[in-house]
């Protein structure tokens, strides 16, 4: 009996050691990445097979293996310039649109009187599709950078505005009354009480605004541009180059994912105090 119990204990010990070794060998982050890459990899293999087998014509959908050469050819010319121009337009438009949105949202969120004047107009403007702004902006601002950045700023304005107003409305009014008791002026109450309490909703709006900024950038560059990723999309369509179109789409997906990831890390950093509160409670 004693030998059998020793054997059972040794078996359990070896099983635990094996499980710990597997955990060290396959970290949760690695497993998460493998799961995320599974579907895209299967789609690439399927596309490669269908094109090579002749089920899909190459002029409609090039084989994924042939995209590398097209990407290398673009990289040898002005691909980095296109990426830089589009990224610069997005960042400037996002900064302007979100900045003005924060100002108006704080104003509307803290004043019922201002909300009565501005909220109906902003709600109506929010419903206008992005493409509807383009003819008017071209008439007013021409085809230079100002019209493109203005369109991106319009796209970035409304998600930040809407989420910020909702977040401020959800702030406990007792906190604001406490600020008045401590004789904080209006600006001090906004900075010390309102913005920290509404920070979660504000940052969610900023993330949504950044995503929409990329979408509005494509709308602007498809209409009137000689540089940028949207121009690559238009040029690939006009020259019947689906490989360039697909490369531009992949670049948009990567840039959008990277920017959203950076914004998420910023959000986690700014809201790190929530984790501290949860640990204390």
Automatic annotation (TrEMBL):
Q: Which InterPro entries match?
A: MetI-like (IPR000515), MetI-like_sf (IPR035906)
Limits of the ABC transmembrane type-1 domain: 79-263
Q: Name one GO biological process term.
A: cellular response to sulfur starvation
Ranges annotated as spanning the membrane: 33-51, 88-110, 122-143, 149-168, 212-232, 244-263
Q: Name one GO cellular component term.
A: plasma membrane
Per the record, the major location class is: membrane
Per UniProt, what is the membrane topology? Multi-pass membrane protein
Q: Which UniProt keywords apply?
A: Cell membrane, Membrane, Transmembrane, Transmembrane helix, Transport
The places in or outside the cell where this protein is found are: Cell membrane
Note one Pfam family from the annotation.
BPD_transp_1
PANTHER family xrefs: ABC TRANSPORTER PERMEASE PROTEIN (PTHR30151:SF39), ALKANE SULFONATE ABC TRANSPORTER-RELATED, MEMBRANE SUBUNIT (PTHR30151)
The family line of this record is:
Belongs to the binding-protein-dependent transport system permease family.
Name the UniProt record assigns to this protein: ABC transmembrane type-1 domain-containing protein
Look up and give the organism this protein is from: Acinetobacter dispersus
Origin organism lineage: Bacteria, Pseudomonadati, Pseudomonadota, Gammaproteobacteria, Moraxellales
């Amino acid at each position: 009996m004693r030998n059998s119990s020793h054997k059972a204990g040794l078996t359990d010990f070896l099983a635990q050691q094996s499980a710990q070794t597997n955990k060290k060998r396959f970290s949760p982050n690695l497993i998460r990445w493998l799961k995320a890459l599974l579907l895209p990899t299967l789609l690439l293999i399927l596309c490669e097979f269908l094109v090579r087998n002749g089920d899909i014509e190459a002029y409609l959908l090039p084989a994924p293996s042939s995209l590398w050469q097209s990407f290398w050819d673009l990289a040898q010319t002005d691909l980095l310039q296109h990426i830089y121009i589009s990224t610069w337009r997005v960042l400037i438009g996002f900064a302007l649109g979100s900045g003005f949105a924060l100002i108006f949202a704080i104003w509307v969120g803290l004043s019922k009187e201002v909300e009565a004047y501005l909220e109906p107009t902003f709600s109506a403007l929010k419903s206008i599709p992005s493409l509807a702004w383009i003819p008017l902006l071209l008439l007013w601002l021409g085809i230079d950078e100002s019209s493109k950045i203005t369109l991106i700023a319009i796209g970035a304005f409304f998600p930040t505005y809407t989420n910020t107003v909702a977040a401020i409305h959800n702030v406990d009014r007792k906190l604001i009354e406490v600020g008045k008791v401590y004789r904080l002026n209006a600006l001090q109450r906004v900075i010390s009480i309102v913005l920290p309490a509404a920070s979660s909703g504000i940052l969610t709006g900023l993330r949504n605004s950044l995503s929409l900024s990329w979408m509005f950038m494509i709308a602007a560059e498809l209409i009137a541009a000689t540089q940028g990723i949207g121009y690559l999309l238009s040029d690939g369509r006009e020259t019947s180059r689906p490989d360039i179109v697909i490369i531009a789409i992949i670049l948009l997906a990567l840039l959008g994912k990277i920017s959203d990831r950076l914004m998420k890390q910023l959000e986690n950093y700014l809201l790190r105090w929530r984790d501290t509160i949860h640990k204390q409670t």
